[in-house]
Amino acid sequence: MSGDIYESFAWEIPRKRHASGKPGEMPETPQHSLRLGVLISGSGSNLQALIDAIENKQLTEVEIALVVSNNANAYGVQRALKHNVPVIYVPWVRLAGAQFTVPQKGEMSESEVKLTALLQLFKVDLIVLAGWMRILSTAFLEQFPRQVINLHPALLPDDGTGHIYTTQDGSQIPVFRGLHAVKQALDAGVKVTGSTVHYVTPEVDAGPVICREEVAIVPGDTEESLHERIKAIEHRLIVEAVRMCKSNI
Ligand code: GRF
């Protein structure tokens, strides 16, 4: 399969403009809204936080251009539909033989080629991985430099790399990456964990930090109770991170 069918789209999705001047005044240069592409795999509570912040005008000059889910049954799909946000299911296939080389861009999976075409078609400026459970290839990421951010339910050092994180009280704890980072923190017996929003690089959960917050682990915490408290923080962090990225784009 080639990307040709996607390249043949002739129609354009217009960008929303917003007034940057005083009410009633025409701005000298009309600004475009920042268009988000939100990638989800599950419950989508962080997607909901973004939808709410935009609807409540806590996040201005930002719109969700497209939600992509690799899971047709993800509850986040229903959240998007309920708020009239465009949403599409992209099955994530990595069958032998489904990989092919895109000239000069390295190798992307067939699903990544589809995802790329959709993000470009919908003129996405910033890609937010909000509970997205698939690893994106170097070739895919190279197309969107500093335009892909991820929420990770643990604490990462400032530049994202290394194996030790120094908490606000000066203690040193291991860096928990990959799947089950909440459980990893509980199993390690640390007193504090948290959440981090960071730029995505080819190494998993190892990109430069945009913002993060610590969450105390309390006696009797289970993976579920701790993850719920972390998510409550994440709902604020993801909005803050998008706001910060908007001023840098
Ligand atoms: C979040 O805890 C995020 O840190 C992790 O996946 C979870 C997604 O939750 N990557 P939700 O789907 O937004 O509710």
Radius of gyration: 19 Å
Largest sheet: 7 strands, mixed
Q: What's the count of strands?
A: 13
Our estimate of the beta-strand percent is: 15-25%
Helicity range of the residues? 25-40%
Structural class: alpha/beta
Average predicted local confidence, pLDDT: 89
Distance between the termini: 34 Å
Order of helices and strands: HEEEHEHEEEHEHEEEHEEH
Each distinct ligand: 5-O-phosphono-beta-D-ribofuranosylamine
> Low-confidence segments, ≥5 residues, pLDDT <50?
98-105
Within the largest sheet, what's the order of strands? 5-4-3-8-9-12-13
Describe the structure.
There is one protein chain. The protein is of the alpha/beta class and 249 residues long. It has 7 helices and 13 strands. The two termini are 34 Å apart. The protein binds 5-O-phosphono-beta-D-ribofuranosylamine (GRF). The site of 5-O-phosphono-beta-D-ribofuranosylamine (GRF) has 15 residues, from helix 2, strand 9 and helix 7. The site of 5-O-phosphono-beta-D-ribofuranosylamine has 15 residues, from helix 2, strand 9 and helix 7.
